[in-house]
Sequence to fold (197 residues):
Amino acid sequence: MLLKTQAITETQKALKKQEEIERTRHVMRTASADAISRDMALVRPDGDTPITSFQAQVGRPKTSEEMKKILTGVNQRFYFEVSKAFPELIGIYFVYYENDPNTGKYPYKKFICGMENGFMPEFSVPHIEYVDKPDPDDPNGTIKVPEHRGMTRGWRDVVKKLIHEKLITKTRAYKEFGIAGGRSSEKWQIATGQALQ
Fold:
């Protein structure tokens, strides 16, 4: 009788362990599928336009000097500084004529975002490399998935950030940067609260 009870207990333990293994596999498959879905979003087109094509994203390019001129025309409190660590980038700062809440310094400059030093496409271009990752639907297979390897920041993303920081209005951005003259962008419209047309 004792051996029979031990056999049942061992069987129950084995079944419980198998259930735990299956639950773990399910969680891992779900996490892997979610990660792949996020990775695939990196290359999702902007409407009909492929975002990984530099030719498609270049649009109406500007230089960093043109950006500085436009932005200081909008507000003299914009300040620009070439990155010491990454000289291909320029930091955009905004000067506040009040005490810094952290240091008490007066006036102080606050970092807003970075932009390219030199040529800037209209739309940002992600630098993507496709790599093999385990296929969540096939334990023995792999799937090619895009991995983000950097970005050439477009001037529209800079303007979008300035709008979100309330340092430039949408109306002023449309006027100063001629937004309406460029191609339609679903991502721009969503990010700036415009109705899709």
User: Anything to note?
Assistant: The CA atoms of residues 6 and 12 lie 10 Å apart. Residues 42-191 form one domain. The two ends are 77 Å apart (CA to CA).
